[in-house]
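PROTOCOL LOG
Step 1. Enter all chains and additional molecules of the complex.
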Amino acid sequence: MRILVVVQRYGAEVVGGAESHARTLAQRLGRRHEVEIATTNALDYWTWAEHFPPGESADDGILVRRFRVRSGRRKDYKEIESRVLLGPHSLADEWEWLRAQGPHAPDLLEFLHREGQRYHAIVFYTYIYEPTALGLPIIPERALLVSTAHDEAPLRLAPYRALFQLPRAIAFLTPEERDLVHGQFRNEHIPSDVIGLPLEPAPLGDAERFRAVHGVRGPIVVYLGQVTEAKGCDELLALWSSRDRGETLVLCGQVRMPIPERADVRALGEVSEETKRDALAAADLIVQPSHLESLGIVLLEAWQQATPALVNAASPVTAGQVARAAGGLAYGDLASFEAALAQLLAEGRSPGERGRDWVRAEYAPERFDRRVEDLVSVAAVMR
Amino acid sequence: MSGSNGRDGSLLVVVQRYGDVSGGAEAHARQLVDHLAPHLRVEVATTTAADYWTWENVFPAGDTVVGGVPVHRFAVARGRARDFRNRERVAFAPLRTLADERAFVDAQGPHSPELLEFVHARRDDYDGFLFFTYIYEPTAYGVPLVPQRAVLVPTAHDEPAISLSVYRALFHAPRAIAFNTEEERAMVWRRFRNERVPSEIMGVGVELPEGISADRFRRRHGLEGPFFLYVGRVVESKGAGELFDFWARWRDERAPGGGPGPRATLVVAGHAEMPVPKRDDVRYVGRISHEEKFDAYAACEALVIPSPLESLSLVTLEAWAMGKPNVCPARSRILAGMTRRAGGGLSYRSFAEFAEILTLLLERPELRDSLGAHGRDFVARTYTWPRIVASYRDLFAEVRARNAT
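Step 2. Run joint prediction.
Step 3. Record the structure below.
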């Protein structure tokens, strides 16, 4: 089959969950099919400033067609956004919001209009940006949508109302995303599946090395990811500061907020993949305070090291993952945090081992490939 | 299921023109609204235009009542552009861009942003939305605003505009599609591959007026002997020019031995936008009333429908209901397909076949009657209001159930 993957940014140096997922999917599909990419020449998801040269190039053996960003995120985007999401506004404002968000790449849309029918199937990534929101309606009859939808206000805007009725098939990353989209759009009749992502088995970390290098004794609770308010770290640190039970909280990731000066809080900054695995192996559990996780890949990495997880019950995806894997517990307030922490410390590694077995089965690369292959076949127009 | 007031929920009908206006799709919308109104709380959203070409603002904007049904009229901000023909030519060219296509929709009119804002703002206030005619902006840009509650009556023809990318999503987005004929559905499926969208053959019902009289029509217009009937706007795009040409050739050249053909008259009824030939065997009777049309069907030998693009030919259904056959060009694929399926008439691929068919129908009354009887049966099976109203009620009950929380 000839398959085109449409995504707002593409390349090894692009940082972003949906974009990495798109690249992984394209590379895996590329083993069995003729795969091409249509994307913009942006690198940064906020400005959408032109970065890559427009035109054709090869990335890991895959043909990438980059189309110029004619306008990026508008300077007054935040104003338009707050009007559209919070205040009285018109239909026209909602369409203006989409344009103001960027990336506006009309040449990409013209390409789909002109050449779209040369492909048997077209995979569209991320419902929210213009290449999908305006591109999929041009060629709905062979479209597979990977929506990566969150429970966020834009999902209810006019530009997306028809979008979720149009594709031939939809791929969700989690069961929670599927439930959200079905509830919002009542589009259960469109064939869909939860594809997750493919996880190769990870090398085991070295717990002793971690303790030795960083001089940590006693129980360890690890946090992995950017240390910011947006990820719920302010709440986590507030919880942690109101207690003193002898466990050490180890923060692995770029620090973008003030950290309290305490002996039981260690901020290591960004760490290597190897150190990350060592930290997970050394940890008694991993904590995930974020309210809004779309996939919770950190959880999956923790379970690969058989480390149990303690997650915020307010995040449906991570709480759902923990419940499905039986790989840890979810907390609400300080009291339940304390109780769950104590229970997990008492249970040892067995919740983590259940998580490991679940990840092995659920995120097996062959399983991912099979699901993607099935959805692409449903979407494809073969005559 | 009926609500406490005995009606099955609310429905907004969106159509480019409504009320005392000409046009097949508009007449269709009006008749359907009148028949659904006893069962659903029906309202109409439309423009202030009366003319399908200029879309000039004629009716006052605002809320009014037509035939007991609330109608919301919105101003046309832009009618048909002066350079529409040019835009159309560019948009139908093989190398057209998306921008060219959007410019065509915009130049075509009626551009009524207030109508779209209304649909958007009231999206949760109606249980269902019924959109008429795929090609105009209110439908093309309106359906995507309420896809979960939308039923589309595309009245699609196999014409250049339907191949534009800008219309593609429209045929995939609605909850259901109400086609006029099996042939229209087959054409749309072939083109869009949207078989997954639930659909039904709906169309309109045919009702015969009281006291139909063939003699009255003959007397009023002083008609003697057999005649063929043309009913509709007399324009080139409806095939009137070719019909006049074929008629003259048949009458002047095709008799055995080379003389004039069998004696017969062509009766032309409708608004003439081109000259009607001045001949003894062509009689132009101008526009005629709905009732008089049925007198004419009763009196004629057969109905001639030369239009190359018909979605649902109402006059054909009416003639069939009166037991009269139709004659149409084979290249009018939807009408010719329906005619063949009904066994209610004959279609021609050339002048020779046209002449043959007309001669046959004159000389073989038993064939004419048998075709007419088949047509009448076909209409009774498919195009009756009780069946259509029941189907729409089921459809909107399903739409409502699907969206119930």
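Step 4. Note key features.
The longest helix of chain A spans residues 365-379.
The interface with chain B takes residues 90-92, 106, 109-110, 113-114, 137-141, 158, 161-162, 165-166, 168, 185-187, 189-190, 381 of chain A (CB under 8 Å).
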